[in-house]
Write a structure and sequence with these properties.
Chains A, B: Pathway: Lipid metabolism; phospholipid metabolism. By secondary structure, chain A is an alpha/beta fold. In chain A, 44% of the residues lie in helices and 17% in strands. In chain A, strands 3-2-1-4-12-11-5 form a 7-stranded mixed beta sheet, with helices on both faces. In chain A, strands 6-7-10-8-9 form a 5-stranded mixed beta sheet, with helices on both faces. The longest helix of chain A has 27 residues, at 228-254.
Chain lengths: 336, 336
Amino acid sequence: MKKIAIDAMGGENAPKAIIDGVLKVKSELPDTRFILFGDKEEIRKLLPKDQINDQLEVVPTTEVINDEDEPVRAIRRKKDSSMVVAANYVKEGKADALFSLGNTGALLACGIFIIGRIKGIARPGLMPTLPAQNSDRGYNIIDVGANAKSKPEYILEWAQMASYYAKKIRGVENPKVALLNNGAEDDKGDELHQEAYKLLKESDLNFIGNIEGNELMTGKADVVATDGFSGNIALKSIEGMSSVLLHSLKDSLLNNGLMTKVGALLIKNAVSDLRSKYDTAKHGGAVLMGVNAPVVKTHGRSNERPIYYTLKQIDKILDEKLIDEFKQNFSNKKEN
Amino acid sequence: MKKIAIDAMGGENAPKAIIDGVLKVKSELPDTRFILFGDKEEIRKLLPKDQINDQLEVVPTTEVINDEDEPVRAIRRKKDSSMVVAANYVKEGKADALFSLGNTGALLACGIFIIGRIKGIARPGLMPTLPAQNSDRGYNIIDVGANAKSKPEYILEWAQMASYYAKKIRGVENPKVALLNNGAEDDKGDELHQEAYKLLKESDLNFIGNIEGNELMTGKADVVATDGFSGNIALKSIEGMSSVLLHSLKDSLLNNGLMTKVGALLIKNAVSDLRSKYDTAKHGGAVLMGVNAPVVKTHGRSNERPIYYTLKQIDKILDEKLIDEFKQNFSNKKEN
């Protein structure tokens, strides 16, 4: 039986959203066991007793890591936090994957320092799947901020892992891999990106060259490799712009008189089309690639829906034995 | 009389859009002379003879720098191109500012190598004014790609110039300056950004700390300082996301049946509200800050409207004697 360790206390809607998500997905994944870590009383209030069985277990913990906590210090000091105890379950082989909606930095630290990186991987990288204009399967971008400082070899390894993920988990045949850069030409960028370009070109990846920020969400590339700093800026700029635009549109629709409000009702289908096209939830959470088990994060403000999809995503990662594959492929490499 | 040298051959709609923009703005700026550089015949066809007078001059040139041209090589080889001849006019004091819609790299090269950087400025930086959710005056971001490689001192100088611009040209009192970084906390980022943070904090700027990609377009900061690589990624990600979303919304409105189309008509006011709120044209073009004259670029696909606004922006930069101010403030600094 596959076993997923779930931090039930992370995120704005914890533990309710997490419990709801687990209850929603449970019957679809009969070969998977969900282990919830968190406040026993709070969880019991929300979880009908008859739901606790072979497929659903609760491990009581007494502490919670908050968004304000300094990540590395938090995982050292809050030994009995839901996140840390869950991570230790994975480390000790009592669970196969770790899922949290909590403090991203702390979760990365749990992945890197408790669960540990795969031998041969220099630096784990954080990889979400984002929606794209011309592809229902979206695209992967890695690293979006696990590393403030990157080297060309890291970028190559991230691209290799993400390409494999795109193939196995998203079903993209021969994924097109691009490098996020400040121009399209081969020689663009600083030394880091020029070197990364060379490594990607020499690799056996399906490398299609540089991609610029404005092409990210078109779906031109299935996998975008980037240094962790720029990747973080790109991801947040995209999220921020789309949030600002959609809020402003909503404001405009509500503040332009009655006929506009009628119009807003009439375009409901179109808006829900748009929503489903750019629905980030359906692709699951962001995966910390390069550690000894799937470590997956979704937005802290998620409700049960993204949690449902992320649990299915984790289950698929376990089915496809992604980590074993990485261990095999990278363990023979020299350590950097 | 102020004199603006205008590359009439750059951009998709050249020379028509440029001539139209000049004719539109001319009467509002009676103390300014517009010098158009480009193909004599093409310009004459579009420009009524009686318009050529003290306020409007045409300087015939025989070559054009294309978007495909390698910038530095192009400005060396195409000596009689509209852009290079215009730049030389500025260098020789026959014009006070340079404006083009053409090849951005070539225009930056004209600014840096022909017009020359201001003594005391280590590296000129490219600075657009972008629309913001909570401010009609938008915000400035610098550098968005003139430099692939940045140093902390460059970022400080860019912030200083942009802050002065925000005050004098955009009328923002005590502009709030932020550093684009991968997190909000003081110690975020790589060495470059940690060092830049310190320099900004020690400066006499109104520094409000780090800003993340998702906060850029909220208007939280009046001036965003960034290394040129990340700034380029952020700018293009924002542009790309907004273009993809607006196109997708349009598609959805057209492909969801008759009632949706009726709805689309009814929300026209709301959409035009939104358009005017996020209208990039009204803020003018991107300024190469740190060279001996205003060098300004607008989008290659611009029609007369952005050109009109950019010419007014350039005129204001000349009125406010921005360059003299920079020369005075930076010339006493040690060269890096």
